[in-house]
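Q: Hi! First time doing this. I have a protein sequence and I read that you can turn it into a structure. Is that right? Here it is:
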Amino acid sequence: MNSSFSDIGRIRQRAIYVAGVGGKLPAVPVAQAELEKAAQAAMSPEAWAYVAGGAGRESTIDANCAAFERWRIVPRVLRDVEQRDLSVVLFGKKLPTPLLLAPIGVAEMAHADADLAVARAAAQWGVPHIFSNQASVPMEQVAAAMGDAPRWFQLYWSRSNEVVASFVKRAEACGCSAIVLTLDTAMLGWRPRDLDLGSLPFLQGQGIAQYTSDPVFMREALAAGVDPTAPKPPLNFQTLGTALAQKANFPGGLAKNLASAAPRAAVQRFIATYSRPNITWDDLKFLRQHTKLPIVLKGILHAADAKLALEHGIDGLIVSNHGGRQIDGEIASLDALPGVVDAVAGKIPVLFDSGVRGGVDVFKALAFGATAVCLGRPYVYGLAIAGEAGVREVIGNVLAEFDLTMGLAGCASVRGISQGALYRQS
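A: Yes, that's right. Below is the predicted 3D structure, encoded as structure tokens:
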């Protein structure tokens, strides 16, 4: 599927229309609004709140989308765009397209196949999948499902440096080609949708598979044991259900863990240690000492931080506000992108994340200087609706729209996309 991306837009259009002659419709809606509606219908209220929700009044989610709308594409005509080159080079490796799949945790809330379905779909398109630190499936199993397809690993800095080092070592061993250190989630943002439902999936033992499969974390968790002073919820059937869910989601399953305290100990240890708010620039030395892979900082929005990243020898940046999930009233990622690009002056690649809903958004982010673009929520919506096939179709639709947009705008390659293709709408 990923052998050639020239003319992918028309090829995908034709495939959909030909299938339609026989009455076969796409597995997931192509229109973004309909995709979201179908995904919401397919997910539990808790899952939808976790995936679709944002911080506070969700004004940052709105700002991300509004920032894209302020910029309109100005096409150039009478250019030869019959053959289009979608490829980019990142860290010395040629990728067939500028698209990556952003790390999104707790994929099991959307579909039982979770990260495995996402990974297989990404591999079929040759799109790098950034493994989530909060995955539902251990990275080794996900890597095995991808063959030799490209993948990166997202890292949250735990309070245990030993766990950090273990995660990085495992990521290297399973073929990840970059470490994405996420900096904007040292604490969970104020997320009313989750709070109104009293729902945090990690308390169910969901989304912590990287931890429960890690020997260092489990050694620490078992040594700490169950904390008798931890806050206790009221004892009722729902509480018992949560306890059973913790055991069911722990390696080995419910039957094996029914009498074990390890699942509860692991959840408590995760909650106590998963993030470290006091990490500073000086701590990056530790990460560099433990990996030779490129280190990419995710969550950079300020030009001054971009310059500090250069001073500390960082290999790449991702301009991101975590999809609007962390700070209400935060700057839109697209508005922050030009300043960060200017600050690094081409010395390291700058990737983009947050608010990307389709191929047109990919084009606009590239026009502002992004080297590549990360896709988030839409692929999870596809996962919820139709599993692996849904993720595969969402990726295909985004790439097809990007290819057609690029050609119709008069660009024969990603290198030909520049800010001159955009007009700011008042």
